[in-house]
Each structure stands twice: as structure tokens, then as C-alpha cells.
Design goal:
Number of strands of chain B: 10
Number of helices of chain B: 10
Largest sheet of chain A: none
Structural class of chain B: alpha/beta
Shape of chain A: globular
CATH class of the largest domain in chain B: Alpha Beta
Helix content of chain B: 25-40%
CATH architecture of one domain in chain A: Orthogonal Bundle
Order of helices and strands of chain A: HHHHHHHHHHHHHHH
Distance between the termini of chain B: 46 Å
Structural class of chain A: mainly alpha
Strand content of chain B: 15-25%
Shape of chain B: globular
Number of helices of chain A: 15
CATH class of one domain in chain A: Mainly Alpha
Number of strands of chain A: 0
Strand content of chain A: under 5%
Oligomer: heterodimer
Largest interface: A-B, 26 and 40 residues
Chain lengths: 379, 295
């Protein structure tokens, strides 16, 4: 009947293949850079040193990566239930609204109370914004892809209204709130390192990066080590089998969407509470959409998402250095490079699998037990 | 051929099914299941005037009435698509009942909350679905994950929060050993198992909790002949232990081999209720075609 799945070593699927894909994407980007009339090797050097050259750039890279970890996890959790949450952008935005309201009102609270309260509020606000599309999907059959996109626009319009008319700092032109009281700021990691006697460069890196790590661990635990994660994945693979197994699809869909939105909402901590200390118009800046690419590249696994987030963080940070140093490679060119990476590593993920596997097999012959990891499946 | 070698070449004319089966499996296979007559006990499941709608909203089960008693295998014969699947799914709690009553051990459970598959399992009613790929298993899951589907919330497998993966692995190993599932490695994806072994995973899972009634659809569809014999023996052993089985199969041979009593379904209704001793292939075939009714 069914032949056993073709065995291949886990490290081919998990490490070698993404590495080869990334190299191909960079090679293609080099061609684009050449076409523009710049030296690709110099561009790569500027990009790399811009992202990882010194402690400060690493700090910025990780700061951006933190945003992408949250949104990437948000997309991945929904994806395991076969739900495509495109609304991380709006959920993060609304999460930021919650955080901002809390911070504006909590000027006199002790910091140790504000931080946990902000975590709860950010997650709850994001979850609420995703709950509605989840509910609509589960009870009324409205597809989450459509509704979450629509909710991004609703969030955007709502926030514009609030920032322009309600939350704006009186007597100022730009639509943003007043700066929060310092007791509501998230501790900067450079300060924390200073207390411990270490030294980090000056960057907006803050406590929420550690929170992102924790979120990754919790998502991993939730998906593969709890009955709820089991139900979510069963539903994602096969709804009929899930119903047979006594898993209520509607309730599960709503819960998964809320969890996904909660993770996206947490992204706002990094920006609103950790870096800007006020609510800016359109602060997620596309991180919700980058999260889709990050989840795709990271194979919806927290470890992969962490690595992909760092890659995209590096592209963000190094990319701004690049456009500064080499004016021909402007912001749009960096977006082109990002697009190539998404295309090769995400959409064409398996295009090179055959040759890479054959090569690895030749290099690492007999004796070794080929792990039986299937793509997209991890424990 | 057996295990990659030609074991015999025979002229078609002189070959019997038993002979072929024995050569394929490597030992004599009894296609006729050894079964002693038994007096059925008290009724477990009583169904009255049950109407069930199909996925398109039209009635597929049109007012059937029957009972399943302890210690009997009730076979439901019929051409595929005459309401058997919907009947099975409704009894398993997967499909809503339009009208009629379902009684379980004398208690009316038609309207018990939402009559979910989980509740039905808790009552002692297990279900081996007709289609293991579409319903009975989550094919991309590891075998041990598939082996807890429907029972994944049980305390055996769970701590307060954590899914106890060691218990899950041990559960699969125990079931695989008892039902001779090969390969016995639960970390393999379910898709790596042959049809017969996948079916054994489902059967082992559903029989592991010692249910009072087993709803079973097409237990041996796409299953090799050695596994067919094994599965049939297990079903008869279950009946001999005083449990009840409702067996839906489109294989008349299978119904005749296993059932103590045969219900014939045609166009959503039961057109025949025949004791095994009085059933012949011809008579059942005519009833299945809707040509004649009995009972």
C-alpha cells in the first residue's frame, strides 16, 4: 500500500536546505544589484556590517526581529489550524491601543505592576481583534483571510480617528499621544546589561525581546505538548477526522484565532512601550505582513521563526544602512531583496530539495540513521 | 507473490480462493470465521423511526427502527450510498438526528446536550469509521498521535496541562503489540503504514477502552487478506465477550461471515431483517436492489 515516506536526514530539511535557498536568493539579489550598477559584494558587506557590525547594529537588528517573532508566531499558530491570519498587522495595532491607554492611565503605578498588566492588556486587545474574525469564520463561515484583511483596515481607520481626534497630545500637529511616564517604559536591555556589569550598544532593544523568546517556548509547548495543541493540529490537518475525534471545530477556530491575535498584540509592547514610549500612527509598519513571510520561512516552528525573524531584522536594519551608504540601493531595492528571499525560501522552498538531498546522501553515507522528519512536521 | 518472491504458479481453472489466500499469507487462512451460536442478551442500543439528513440536507436515513443486543453482531447490508454511512455517523454522534429516538441501555439519549462523539465514547460506544483516511486517522500525524484521536483528553494521557508523551508512546506500543501493528514504531508518520496496519491502529484504539458497542464501517476495505482474518477474529471475540457490534459493510461475504442478524438497507429504509441462518446471498441481493422486502 503506501510506501514508507522517503527517509531523509532531518538536518537536510531543517538546515541545509534553507541555507542553500538563502544562498540562491542572495545570488539572485546580487544580479539585481549588478543591474542597478552597484557592486554586489560591497552591498553585501554594507548590509552585513549594517546589521551585525557592532553592538548597536545588532541591538537594532534584534529589536526588529522581536517584532517579527511575535507576528511570525501569531501567523504560525493559526497556520497549524489551517487558518491564514493576515490580520496580525491590525491585531498588533489594536494591541498598541490597549497598551497606550494603560500606560497613559498608569502614570502613578509601580513599574512592576505596569509591565505584567501591559502584557495582559496587549494580548487581550490583540486577541479581541482576532476573536471577531474567528467567530465570523466559525459561526458564519466568513473566510478569515477576507475578514482579517478587512479588520486591518478597520483598525487603521479607528486608530487614525482616535489619534487625530481623541488621543492626540493637545497643541501639536502630528497624530501621536503624549509621551508616557517613565515608570511605564519597558527596561532597556542595555541598562539591564549595565547593572550586570556588561555592555550593550545603544539601541531600543528592551525587555520584550526576552518576552518574545518566552512566547516562542510557550507556543512550542502549546502546539506539541498539550491536548489543546493536539486538537488544533488535528483540525488543521483534517477537519473530518477532528470532528470524528470529538474536537469541536467552531470553538477551536475561535480559540486559535484569539491566541494568534494575542501573540500579534504582544508585538506592540516592543514598539509602544519599549522604544517610542507613545503611540504613533501606523506603528506596526508592516510587521504583521512580514510575520507571514517569517512564519513561512520558519516552517511554522518557533525555532525557525526565531531564525527567520533575525534574518528579516537584519534586512531591515542592514537595509537602511545600505540605502544610506549606497544611494542607488534605496529602500525599494531592499524590499526587492526581501521579496526574492521570500520567493526562493518560501514559495520555492522545495524546488531544490532533490539535488540537495542527493548531495547530502553522497556526503554522509551508510550507518547513519536517517531521521524521519517530514516537512512542516516537528515535535 | 509473497515478500518479493514468486511462491507458486497455478492454472486459474484449478485454483480456489482458500488456496490462493494460503499461498499469499504463507499459512492456511480461514475465510469462514469459526463462530459458535450465541443467545443475544439485553438490548444495548434501540433506534426508533430514526431520520437523518445527509450533507445536502435531504433525508438519507428515512425512519429506521432496530435494536442491537449484547452478544450479537448486527450486519447492515446494502449497496453503498443507501444511508448506511449517515446512520453510522448519526449513531456515533457526528451527525444530527432529524427525528426519531435513540435509546442507550434503556435511556433516551437523543437529546442529551449536544450528542457529541466525545459523549458517545464516554458512554461506551466506539466507532471504527468507514474511511480511515478521511476520518479515522490524521494521516500526517505520527502513529502514536493518531492512536489517541478521540481519547486525547483522557487522564491517562494528560497531566494538568501537559500531554504526557511518554504515556501516549506507551499506549501505542501496547496497542501495536496487541494488534500486531507493523512496523511497531509509533514515531513514524501514520502515512508510512500499510492500509491493513492503519486499520489495525484504528481498531486497536477503539477497542482499547473495552466499549460495550462497536460501530464499525467497512472494517476490511483495502486491507490485505492476513489482516482481514485477524480483524474478523477480533470482532467475533468481542461479540463472544458479550459486547455488541453494528457492522456496516458493502461486502456481502463479510456480512455473511460475521453477522448473527442482517439488516438490509435500501434507499434509507430497512427492507429486511434476516437471521443469519435464513440468509442467502440471492435473497439479500434482491432486497439490496429494492426488488423484494421481508420482515
Amino acid at each position: 500500500m503506501t510506501a514508507p515516506a522517503r527517509a531523509r536526514p532531518s538536518w537536510v530539511a531543517l538546515a541545509a536546505l534553507p541555507a542553500v535557498n538563502l544562498t540562491v536568493a542572495l545570488a539572485l539579489s546580487a544580479v539585481v544589484v549588478l543591474l542597478v550598477g552597484e557592486n554586489p559584494l560591497r552591498a553585501l558587506r554594507v548590509l552585513a556590517s549594517g546589521a551585525f557590525g557592532d553592538a548597536e547594529s545588532i541591538g537594532y537588528t534584534l529589536y526588529y526581529a522581536t517584532n517579527f517573532v511575535f507576528t511570525g508566531l501569531a501567523v504560525a499558530v493559526a497556520f497549524h489550524a489551517s487558518l491564514f491570519n493576515i490580520g496580525a498587522e491590525g491585531q498588533a495595532y489594536i494591541g498598541g491601543l490597549g497598551v497606550a491607554l494603560l500606560c497613559l492611565g498608569a502614570g502613578a503605578w509601580p513599574q512592576l505592576l505596569v509591565i505584567p498588566a501591559a502584557v495582559v492588556v496587549a494580548a487581550a486587545a490583540g486577541a479581541a481583534w482576532a476573536f471577531l474574525p474567528g467567530w465570523l469564520q466559525a459561526r458564519r463561515g466568513s473566510h478569515v483571510v477576507i475578514t482579517t484583511i478587512m479588520f486591518n483596515f478597520i483598525a487603521s481607520a479607528l486608530m487614525t480617528y482616535l489619534l487625530v481626534n481623541v488621543l492626540i497630545k493637545p497643541g501639536q500637529q502630528s497624530p501621536e499621544t503624549r509621551e508616557f511616564a517613565p515608570n511605564t517604559w519597558l527596561p532597556q536591555l542595555q541598562d539591564a546589561a549595565g547593572w550586570l556589569g556588561g555592555r550593550l550598544g545603544h539601541s531600543p532593544l528592551n525587555l520584550s525581546s526576552l518576552l518574545a523568546l518566552l512566547a516562542g517556548v510557550l507556543v512550542w509547548f502549546y502546539l506539541w505538548h498539550t491536548r489543546w495543541g493536539y486538537e488544533l493540529r488535528a483540525l488543521g490537518h483534517n477537519e473530518t477526522a477532528a470532528v470524528y475525534g470529538g474536537i469541536p471545530p467552531a470553538r477551536t477556530v475561535i480559540a486559535v484565532m484569539a491566541i494568534s491575535g494575542g501573540l500579534a498584540g504582544l508585538m506592540s509592547l516592543n514598539d509602544v512601550m519599549g522604544a517610542q514610549h507613545r503611540l504613533l500612527m501606523n506603528f506596526p509598519g508592516g510587521a504583521g505582513y512580514v510575520g507571514i513571510a517569517v512564519a513561512l520561512m520558519g516552517r511554522n516552528h518557533p525555532v525557525g521563526i526565531g531564525l527567520a525573524a533575525i534574518l528579516f531584522g537584519a534586512l531591515y536594519q542592514g537595509g537602511s544602512e545600505l540605502s544610506f551608504d549606497m544611494p542607488k540601493l534605496n529602500r525599494d531595492m531592499v524590499v526587492v531583496i526581501q521579496g526574492l528571499i521570500i520567493l526562493v525560501c518560501g514559495a520555492l522552498e522545495y524546488a531544490l530539495r532533490g539535488p540537495v538531498e542527493a548531495l547530502c546522501r553522497r556526503m554522509a553515507p551508510s550507518g547513519r540513521e536517517w531521521a524521519r522528519i517530514r516537512p512542516g512536521h516537528a515535535e | 507473490m509473497r515478500q518479493g518472491q514468486v511462491v507458486a504458479t497455478l492454472p486459474t481453472r484449478d485454483t480456489t480462493a482458500e488456496q490462493l489466500a494460503a499461498l499469499m499469507v504463507g499459512r492456511p487462512v480461514t475465510l469462514r470465521v469459526g463462530k459458535t451460536a450465541r443467545q443475544p442478551g439485553e438490548p444495548l442500543l434501540e433506534v426508533t423511526d430514526l431520520v437523518v439528513l445527509g450533507s445536502l440536507g435531504v433525508p438519507r436515513v428515512k425512519g429506521v427502527t432496530f435494536a442491537v443486543r449484547r452478544g450479537e453482531i448486527v450486519g447492515v447490508a446494502g449497496v453503498a450510498g443507501n444511508g448506511q454511512s449517515e446512520l453510522l455517523e448519526a449513531l456515533a454522534g457526528m451527525r444530527a438526528v432529524e427525528s426519531g429516538r435513540i435509546r442507550w441501555q434503556g435511556r433516551d439519549i437523543t437529546d442529551t446536550g449536544d450528542r457529541t462523539p466525545r459523549l458517545m465514547r464516554a458512554l461506551g460506544l466506539a466507532h471504527v469509521p468507514e474511511d480511515r483516511h478521511r476520518m479515522g486517522l490524521v494521516i500526517p500525524f505520527t502513529a502514536r498521535e493518531s492512536a489517541i484521536l478521540g481519547y486525547h483528553r483522557e487522564s491517562t494521557y494528560n497531566g494538568t496541562i501537559r500531554l504526557n508523551r511518554r504515556a501516549v508512546a506507551a499506549g501505542f506500543d501496547r496497542q501495536a503489540a496487541a494488534y500486531d501493528v507493523r512496523p511497531g514504531d509509533g514515531s513514524l508518520p501514520t502515512s508510512a503504514f500499510s492500509g491493513g496496519n492503519q486499520q489495525k491502529i484504528v481498531l486497536a484504539r477503539e477497542l482499547d477502552r473495552n466499549p460495550d458497542l462497536l460501530l464499525v464501517g467497512q472494517p476490511t476495505r483495502g486491507v490485505d487478506i492476513g489482516a482481514i482474518e485477524f480483524i474478523h477474529q477480533r470482532l467475533v471475540a468481542l461479540r463472544d465477550a458479550g459486547k455488541a457490534i453494528l457492522l456496516v459493510s458493502v461486502e456481502l461475504d463479510e456480512i455473511l461471515a460475521l453477522a448473527d442478524r442482517i439488516l438490509v438497507m435500501h434507499d434509507g429504509g430497512i427492507v429486511g431483517d434476516v437471521p443469519r441462518a435464513e440468509a442467502t446471498e440471492q435473497a439479500l441481493g434482491l432486497m439490496m436492489a429494492g426488488a423484494v422486502g421481508s420482515a
